[in-house]
Amino acid sequence: MEKDIYENIDRLKLAGFDNISIDLIYALPGQTMDQVKDNVAKAIALDIPHMSLYSLILENHTVFMNRMRRGKLPLPKEELEAEMFEYIIAELERAGFEHYEISNFSKPGFESRHNLMYWDNAEYYGIGAGASGYIDGIRYKNHGPIRHYLKAVEDGNARINEEHLTQREQMEEEMFLGLRKKSGVSMERFEEKFGQSFQELYGDIIKDLIQQGLMQVDGDHVRMTKRGLFLGDTVAERFILE
Q1: Where are the domains of the chain?
Q2: Taking every annotated instance into account, which residue ranges of this chain make up the domain HemN C-terminal (predicted)?
Q3: What fold, for 2-111?
Q4: Bridging pattern class, strands 138-142 and 159-164
């Protein structure tokens, strides 16, 4: 398996591809810090411009989840998982990678423009069979099988479903998605986009998270600290509007 990774990346480079990305998964069953250090060193040695970092997530109705529930899957403790997370970030940054999003690292100029559009909560068109789009607060999906899609186009509507987001839901998504970025959320852009006072909506929450060491304010932007990034889902939940 490891040999295949090296060979395939070499093939991509020989074919002229210079924008290559890999996924790094940590907090694996039985994984030690020494193994993490070895994996990170090997990943950096690949000399590629982008990496995504994920801890192992157990899904319901899977072999791993069933084994974990029976006590037969020795996953790292949360403290060790946090140590792994901090170590990987430090090593990738030392190697010249920018930690530009909670799970993503890139060399300068190699950020994922596609994903940044989502994290900026920007609008986009979904064109083609099975494509998804987000325009004017409406998230939609087109028919999937090509014959169904073509028939739907002929009938005048390619969409199989639509979700109309309220302004509250749009503001929540602006925070959930924007806080994934290292740069965080622009308070000025938020107010221009939604016509609502950022401080009135979130001022007390931001203050509390700052006191916990999970968030910080940099000029016009609010963003998570490194500790906040590790607890990203917990932080994001605080921005659900009642």
Answers
A1: 2-111, 117-164, 167-237
A2: 165-231
A3: Transcription Regulator spoIIAA (3.30.750)
A4: antiparallel
* Sheet with strand 50-55: strands edge to edge: 21-26, 50-55, 104-106, 98-101
Among 32, 23, 38, smallest CA distance to 80 is for: 32
Q: Taking a C-beta distance cutoff of 8 angstroms, is the pair 87, 33 a contact? A: yes
Strand residue runs (E) in the chain: 21-26, 50-55, 98-101, 104-106, 132-135, 138-142, 159-164, 185-186, 215-218, 221-224
Task: Indicate the helix (H) or strand (E) that contains 170.
Answer: helix 167-178
**Region 167-237: CATH code:** 1.10.10.920
More confident residue, 93 or 1: 93
Task: Report the alpha-carbon distance of residue 80 to residue 116 in Å, rounded.
Answer: 30
> In which band, very low, low, confident or very high, does the pLDDT at 74 lie, cut at 50, 70 and 90?
confident
Q: pLDDT tens for residues 162-206?
A: 999 999 999 999 999 999 999 999 999 999 999 999 999 999 999
Q: Can you tell me whether residue 9 is helix, strand or coil?
A: helix
User: How many C-beta atoms lie closer than 10 Å to residue 229's C-beta?
Assistant: 21
CA distances to 27, 126, 139, 164 from 149, rounded to whole Å, are 41, 12, 17, 21
Q: What integer pLDDT is reported at residue 68 of this predicted model?
A: 83
Whose tokens are 């932007």? That residue is: 221
Give the Cα separation of 223 and 210 in Å (integer): 10
| pLDDT value, residue 192 | 97
When pLDDT is cut at 50, 70 and 90, the band that residue 124 belongs to is: very high
